[in-house]
TrEMBL record:
It comes from Actinobacillus minor NM305. Residues 34-192 form the SIS domain. The lineage of its organism: Bacteria, Pseudomonadati, Pseudomonadota, Gammaproteobacteria, Pasteurellales. Pfam families: SIS_2. This is Putative phosphoheptose isomerase. Keywords: Isomerase. GO terms for molecular function: carbohydrate derivative binding; isomerase activity. Gene3D superfamilies: Glucose-6-phosphate isomerase like protein, domain 1. One of its GO terms (biological process) is carbohydrate derivative metabolic process. PROSITE patterns: SIS (PS51464).
Amino acid sequence: MLEKIQDRFTESIQVQIAAAELLPHKLSESAQRMQECLLRGNKIIVCGHGRSYANAEMLVSHLLHKYELARPSFAAVLLQFDGVLASVAAHHNELAQLYRKQLQAVAKEGDLFVSFSPIGNEEAVLNAIHFAKNEGLDIIAFTSILNDHTNGLLEDQDIEIAMPSTNEARIVEGHLFCVNLLCELVDHLLFS
């Protein structure tokens, strides 16, 4: 049991070390895009699927309330996947369109769309990314090296934060670290 625990710590640390080499420029650019979006008076719209829904909720919570710095709330919207909304979508076999429909209802020109897709084949997220592309929204996509499906939708101006792992748990952990860091960077950019 102790060996298994040690192995998981080692695996997590190795993913973080690899991410530290690959992602700093992408995270810096993402923080700047978020800052620009908010300064324009636009909003950050976020979705995540499966385990990543919690990371999407965390990002929106940090933006709406605070991360570490006491400050005004930032405009952020979480695309929902719970309660009656998800139940009705499932009943009508429309789960794959759930985020796209919400995005269509709330997105305006100049908004920023942030998606969490750790495995890269989450159809509801892919449909929302496709819609965001058609609407000309800026996109920040949290993915992994399992990103073949997402990769086909993103363009050069989009930002992909791809965790260097194939283990979903390590990917989600890495994304959460990046969420916290992004919120710290945005606070720093806007209030330092």
